[in-house]
Amino acid sequence: METIAAARAAYGDDCEILVVDGGSTDRTREVAARHARVILKTGGRGAQLNAGAERAAGNILVFLHADTSVEACSGREISDALSSSGVAGGCHRFRVQPPAARFTRYALLEVGVNLRTRIFRTATGDQAIFARRERFWEAGGFPDYPLFEDVTFVRRLRRIGRFERVDAAARTSRRRWEERGFWRTVAFHWILRTAFHFGVRPERLSTWYDRGSGVR
Q1: C-beta of residue 65 within 8 angstroms of C-beta of residue 150
Q2: What's phi and psi for 50, nearest 5 deg?
Q3: Which has the closest alpha carbon to 185: 196, 193, 177?
Q4: Do the Cβ atoms of 18 and 55 come closer than 8 Å?
């Protein structure tokens, strides 16, 4: 599995890797169990992420989506960022996989996401959010939301410490944008995000998401 292999390369062979499975019906658990510790947890993604954090033994937590892989320098850069006691956590630089050529729509997407992170100090799960263990729980962990659990957690984390973006990239598969249409997906993403900003409940947004088959 590419995500696990990349994490091993980034964080070292002695790092603890946990795969939280929400009840897959394919061979995901069987394959993952050969390379990592597998936890079964149904429910929303927030609850699944918290389940992994509860069982993790390390002092630094990194949350990776299954379709996202990190660069080999990620472990060093995270350690450097967290060497300052005032930093509670952070995220990676957003990139797509396969890599985007310059001056293409995917390059524009990368610039937009990374600029948003720099200006507003926010992030989504595609950017491989990380945190000190004690700060993670001090912030209350991820809320049990069907959508925007990641954005809400980052807001909470920023209240108790600085949120830093490391230069190491988290590369996320283009598949969702390609399957649903690039501009349609980007526009739908911004509609959901704007509605969330103005107070629409994640539960209601989840029904929009299911109908629109969009992407965050």
Answers
A1: no
A2: -65, -35
A3: 177
A4: yes
**Whole-number Å distance between alpha carbons of 63 and 53:** 9
Task: Indicate if the alpha-carbon torsion angle 96, 97, 100, 104 is positive or negative.
Answer: negative
| Segment 6-49, tens digit of pLDDT | 999 999 988 999 999 888 888 888 888 888 899 989 888 899 99
**Global pTM?**
0.92
Token code pair at residue 50: 């918290």
Three-state SS letters, the chain: CHHHHHHHHHHCCCCCCEEEECCCCCCHHHHHCCCCEEEECCCCHHHHHHHHHHHCCCCEEECCCCCEEECCCHHHHHHHHCCCCCEEEEEEEEEEECCCCCCCHHHHHHHHHHHHHHHHCCCCHHHCCEEEHHHHHHCCCCCCCCCCHHHHHHHHHHCCCEEEEEEEEEEEECHHHHHHCHHHHHHHHHHHHHHHHCCCCHHHHHHHHHHHCCCC
Task: Please check whether residue 87 is in contact with residue 162, taking contact to mean a CB–CB distance below 8 angstroms.
Answer: yes
HSE-CB of 153 using CA atoms within 13 angstroms: 31
Determine the Cα angle at 67 with ends 62 and 72, to 5°: 55
**What residue type is assigned to position 216 of the chain?**
R
pLDDT digits (tens, 9 = 90+) for 87-131: 999 999 999 999 999 899 999 999 999 999 999 999 999 999 999
Q: Which domains does the chain have, with CATH numbers?
A: 2-173 (3.90.550.10), 179-216 (no CATH)
The structure tokens listed for 209 are 């998401």
The pair of structure tokens assigned to 59 is 């002092």
